[in-house]
Amino acid sequence: MGELMEKTTCSMRQFSEFPKRFSTSVVLGALLAGFASAQQTGGIRGSVTTRGPDNQPVSVPGVSLTLRCQPAAGPATEITTDEKGNYSFMKLAPGMCQLTASAQGFQSVSKDIDVRPGQSGELDIQLDLATITQKVEVQEHADKLSTESAAPASKLQGEQLETLPLAEQSFRDALRVVPGVVRTPDGKLNIRGAAETQGILQVNSVEATDPVTGSFSIRVPADAIQVLSTDKTPFDAGYGEFSGGLTTIETKPPSGDWKWKVSDFLPSIRGRAGHWVGYSQAVPRLAFGGSLLPGKLNFLEAFQYEMEKTPVRGLAWPHNEIKTEGFNSYTSFQAILSPTHILSADVNVFPRRIQFANITPLIPQTASSDYGQRGMSGGLSDFYQFNSGAILKTSVRYTRFDSRARGQGTEDMLVTPDGWSGNFFNQWARQSSDLDAFSVFQFAPKDWLGHHNLRIGSDLSYRSFTGQSASRAVQILRQDGSLAERIDFQGNGLLGASVTEGGVFVQDHWALSGHVAVDFGGRLTSQTIGRSAAFAPRLAMAYSPAKASKTIIRAGAGLFDGRVSLLDADFAHNPQRVLSLFDQTGNLVGTPVAFQNVYVANGTEPLSSLIRRRPDRSPRTFLTNIEFDRQLSESSSFRLTYIYSRTYNLFVVNPLTGNPGGESFLTLSNSGVSQYHEFEATFHLQPVRRADLNISYIWSRNRGDLNTSSQIFVPFEQPVIRANVFGVAPSDVPNRFITWGILHLPWEITLSPVFDIHTGLPYSNLDVLQNYAGRPDGQRFPTFLSLDTRVYRDFHLPLPGVNRSSRRKVRLGLYSINLTNHKNYRDVFNNITSPFFGQFVGFEHRIDGFVLEIVE
User: Fold this and answer.
1) Using an 8 Å Cβ cutoff, are 731 and 758 in contact?
2) Phi-psi region of 16 (alpha: psi -120 to 50; beta: other; left: phi over 0)
3) Which residues contact 588 (CB under 8 A, 6 or more apart)?
4) What is the pLDDT of residue 808?
5) What is the gyration radius of the CA atoms in the chain, in angstroms?
6) pLDDT reported for residue 24
7) Closest by Cα among 417, 522, 533 to 832
8) What is the pTM assigned to this prediction?
9) CB burial of residue 71 (10 Å; 0-12, 13-18, 19+)
10) C-alpha dist (Å) from residue 332 to 344, 436, 690
11) I need a labelling partner for 243 at 20 to 30 A (CA). Which of 2, 4, 268, 382 fits?
């Protein structure tokens, strides 16, 4: 469980009198601090071993060693042990360093060493077996310049989640610091231009998403997260069942020592007009664990409660709040059966309820929908290492996920040029499950024309759901209040579907020399709904022209096969829409048009001959990248990256009228396409002692079909479905500049800023019938700008009742979200018939508060 600490946190949101000049002076002080001076170099060498079956030392080749020193010793550097388990770091500047050793199947070990000028220190490391846990990589600092990884991911350590200024203490909010990740005002994540439903979230190497939609709805307590990772170019053939980005979470393994931690147990107070009006937030966390049977069985429990009232500017208080309540409990066990055999089990429980989940300045609470979920996920994982060094890992996980949504009443929904009123039209309930199993065998490292790490594996998943969707009438009104169109619904909306998917893969990491490394493999997949057989080859390489590896060129390409959403698998049984048009006097124009829900295959034949019972394809993505890494100095590095992806066979929804026979259809087809280009330039700097600063510029271009099924139905069904068009994607951000870091300043002050400025998101102008008026997504919100900061200082104080040799730490500080109070608008009057047409509304005000923590 790592180092669990006793910690209490009190934060007071809405503390609007926070002095801005104090934060500004701290920022300027960090930027004006001097650089470390150059010194004579030293070195570190040693070996990495583990205990064999007879408790004798056994060398461990291929161990990843990461050396982090004070800025005088340069940025973090990573190498791997050779075939005899030996390693060496040369030409290091003197100072204190920390060496971390990690390898698949072993517990990570960190040791401190003092690098002395003109000397080569000896440091041997012994690794103990541990469970293989899932990754969540979000690493944007380019601190690895090594050919060992042909396609490195972006990582964020668990302790950084608590240091960064986050509006929400969740992994979803932390992902925003990654170039290429865009979060829209409605909370949807887009990674590398693809919706989160096209990507995948894994926790300890196993999928953790809503089985029906694929959304990242299963949360993990912050105290259980060890590493968070996002991989925009996951060329490893071991990954499957997604066509977007890969996000992984590695949880903390249970510790053999009993430790505990309490955090954020004091609620945030809300004030208005100088008076206390209740609580705005309460997110207490508890984590504890240790050894149940010494040396045999370890245990970890991480619990997080969540109560939050989020105000939406533009609506009248107190009817302007999104109210969230729930809890998250993650429990894990680790049984050490032998020095080479470990069995792990975990259970994650995640009920949550959100009232008025989709309100905006133009959608009041009465016209919004509530959302609720409950469920659990439990899994077993077996890890075994053979005497040869080969590793076998097998995991099985079962997830139960039930969700529901409903409006605030039974009135018709009213869609007007100035927003929504009445009650939200759709409600649904779903009961779903997901059973996953996989097995991976990693051969012992082999030397043949270089160094090989070969893996083979297979996986199998079964997803199913049953549910019901019901809808009431939607009235589209003109500006004068007269009825322009009415949408009625027919059918009981009984839904259900199941999908089985299996895959096998082979993957090899081939280090030809110290200059060239190649990752290559292939994956064969079969789906009962979707592609009956699909092969996805993948290749990535890294080349360093110089022995010192200060310059590395990386490139890769591969195919990725997505999956069929369970909502898409049973699209035809959704309630059918019936459209009626009316003139300004209220008289019906023509006859009502009923749209039959059908799945249509791709082809040029008449529409009636293309209707199928279920989808016969799934989305597929071609992805390629090229990257240039350069270590500029001992305290700075630079990364230049270009990514191109093209996804085809996306599911799109389109209403079709005027067909032969007079029939009208609401079609779901695999005809959708999206294209994404990204150019990224990132600097990683260590400007002052114990400081990391990341500066990134991202240019991107995102185009595609606008009526993707996830855009229409996730998280809530859209009342109006327009004709599908190809154009600017809703998450398109052509220009973005983001800077973030953690700066440890003198007097034990820590400053963590996040500065984000980017092009405003696109939106469309609409006419009286809510159809496009002009180019779809042809307009944009004003430029988004936010400076978030968190600054604190640690005070070491003895506390009553505690051994005097033990010291506790009191952390005092301030934080600010949107420090400059920039007007980042959430909505716009986009109907050309509205008297407020073109006006932006609902910007987010600055949020200030205190940081008070007690840490042992």
Assistant:
1) no
2) alpha
3) 580, 581, 582
4) 65
5) 28
6) 39
7) 417
8) 0.82
9) buried
10) 7, 18, 34
11) 382
Extract the tokens encoding 521: 């493999």
pLDDT, position 317: 87
pLDDT given at position 10: 39
| Beta-ladder partners of 546 | none
Please give the distance of CA 853 from its chain centroid, rounded to a whole number: 27
- Which phi and psi (to 5°) does residue 23 adopt? -65, -40
Tokens 């937030």 locate to: 281
Q: What is the pLDDT of residue 1?
A: 37
- The pLDDT value recorded for residue 677 is 98
Find the Cα–Cα–Cα–Cα dihedral 778, 782, 784, 785, rounded to 10°.
Answer: 160
Alpha-carbon distances, residue 389 vs 47, 52, 192, 315 (angstroms): 16, 10, 37, 63
φ, ψ dihedrals at 367, nearest 5°? -100, 10
H-state helical runs in 559-657 = 566-569, 607-610
Task: Fill in the amino acid letter for 163.
Answer: T
- Looking at residue 51, its pLDDT comes to 64
**The three-state (H, E, C) secondary structure of 415-480, written as one string:** EECCEEEECCCEEEEEEEEEEEEEEEEECCCEECCCEEEEEEEEEEEEEEEEEEEEECCEEEECCC
For residue 129, the 8-state DSSP code is B
Of the CA atoms within 13 Å of residue 471, those in its CB half-sphere come to: 25
Q: How far apart are CA 729 and CA 733, in angstroms?
A: 9
C-alpha dihedral (629, 633, 636, 641), degrees to nearest 10: -10
DSSP string computed for 224-292: GEEEEEEESS---TT--S-SS-EEEEEEPPPPSS-EEEEE--BPEEEEETTEEEEEEEE--EEEEEEEE
Residue 512 has which token pair?
A: 């030809």
Q: How many CA atoms lie within 13 A of 740 on its CB side?
A: 24
Task: State the CB neighbour count (10 A cutoff) for residue 245.
Answer: 28
Spell out, as residue ranges, where the chain has pLDDT lower than 50: 1-39, 53, 71-74, 131-148, 802-806
For β-strands 446-447 and 120-122, DSSP reports them as unpaired
Say how far apart CA 237 and CA 503 lie, in whole Å.
10
d(CA 150, CA 552): 10
* 474-502 residues labelled b (16+ CB within 10 A) or e (exposed): bbbbbeeeebbbbbbbeeebebbbbbebb
Q: Contacts from 14-20 at CB under 8 Å and sequence distance 24+?
A: 14/268, 14/269, 14/270, 14/271, 14/280, 14/847, 14/848, 14/849, 15/848, 15/849, 15/850, 16/846, 16/848, 17/848, 18/814, 18/816, 18/848, 18/849, 20/816, 20/819
d(CA 426, CA 593): 20
Predicted pLDDT of residue 433: 97
Compute the residue count for the chain. 856
| C-alpha to C-alpha distance for 642 and 349, rounded to whole angstroms | 39
